[in-house]
Write the structure tokens for this entry.
Amino acid sequence: MKPTKAKPEAAPKLKKRKWIYVQRPAVYEIAPCECGNADPDWSEYAGRLWCKACKKDFVPAHNGIFDGPIAVNACRMMGIVFDRYVIKTKTVEPFEYNAKS
Ligand SMILES: [Zn+2]
């Protein structure tokens, strides 16, 4: 099977998030906090994560799978989804898998 080229985008920096992915940052292999907490939360600011242990926002050392081309169908098979929780409307926007190419 050919991986698709569709690429969920990493959020731009220093803006308040309008949405977060429904799964936790660790699911997408985004870098942990330097304190060793490997399961941080999404920060309210785009491009940042929140460490509960340190009580601070931090910029992760890398963005895990968002740093490269993402084989979304392979991710789906591994249980990784890109559905978004929209903060304002409190609704989930399903990620649209591109059937072609
Ligand atoms: Zn920490």
Observations:
- The mean pLDDT is 90.
- The CA atoms of residues 19 and 86 lie 4 Å apart.
- The first helix runs from residue 72 to 77.
- Residues 33, 35, 37, 51, 53-54 surround zinc ion (CB under 6 Å).
